[in-house]
Description:
Number of helices: 12
Distance between the termini: 46 Å
Structural class: alpha+beta
Oligomer: single chain
Largest sheet: 4 strands, antiparallel
Strand order of the largest sheet: 2-3-7-6
Order of helices and strands: HHHHHHHEEEEEEEHEEHHHH
Helix content: 40-55%
Shape: globular
Amino acid sequence: MQFTPExxxxxxxxxxxxxxxxxxxxREWEKAGIFPAHQLFKKMGDLGLLGxxxxxxxxxxxxxxxxxxxxxxxxxxxxxxxxxxxxxxxxDMCTPALARxxxxxxxxxxxxxxxxxDLVGCIGVSEVTGGSDVAALKTTAKKDGGDYVINGSKMxxxxxxxxxxxxxxxxxxxGPVHSNKSLIMVPLxxxxxxxxxxxxxxxxxxxxxxxFFDNVRVPQRNLIGQEGxxxxxxxxxxxxxxxxxxxxxxxxxxxxxxxxxxYTRQRHTFGQPLLNNQVVHFRLAELRTEVEALRALTYRxxxxxxxxxxxxxxxxxxxxxxxxxxxxxxxxxxxxxxGMGFTADNPISQAYRDSRLISIGGGADEIMLGIxxxxxxxxxxxxx
Length: 384
């Protein structure tokens, strides 16, 4: 990719923001199990970082996705995974369909204040019985007068305890599962909405919730685009989510390798630096090569996406590789840190805990493999 001065300016701004506004507080946020999303997002909104790819008339910069990718990659300097993930939900997971297909009224009500950092959003797709099987969701939104009446629940919702609104995928008819769903903007202060925090093994600084909807009424004007197009809209949102996930892992992986090189250079065993052992420096060289391969794949996918091409396969590949490589790098590096790698406040153990989610969230590895096989023409048909 050819990076412009504007790309580099965004990269520099994000890195400075991470150094000054995020990393000094992450230990506190990890212990609290939450970070102050409204406070942090407002600071990002003031810098224009929450609407890089969105229309200028709603407060965005009007740039293409490559600039968002640069921000995602720079957020890899965060020393925890939860905060970049939560930021990505705001910028690349719960807002793309709203920005592309939402009415001007909806965009003024929800998108503009989210770009400004005045509102925090979340995406409501996964359910206890559904997970990565989006077509199997059970939440319903039935018409009653001028409203939708929503019943059901959503699981594993990032930003869920703090979010002001949810981009909710629900069944709005009894038709085929791929054409009976709609995306609806749901204010989370509406009567009938309740939340329950979920404790996790990693990503502690990012709050995660189960959301419950009990006869929640929202105006039918809160529908994004046309009724029945929600599954398609969500598949499009997933592409940006998966590209963001791949891009945001790149710098983080490089940092883990850099830190491990420095540690093994300083750490002496049997009269020489640990790094001098061939098994160590060869393995780190191999991992660095894998990161560069992932970077090339991610850049190619983003470049194609910006050019208007269908990147379903490339985005799925990048997301699959990012999840698996993140686990591999964290595990290998932790081994070379020895007992220090098994301590809770070590950067490698932090990555070991946090990175495990990448192979699950936004579509599990197995879902990515299924998509790739389908597009390769190697996926067997369903047995009848």
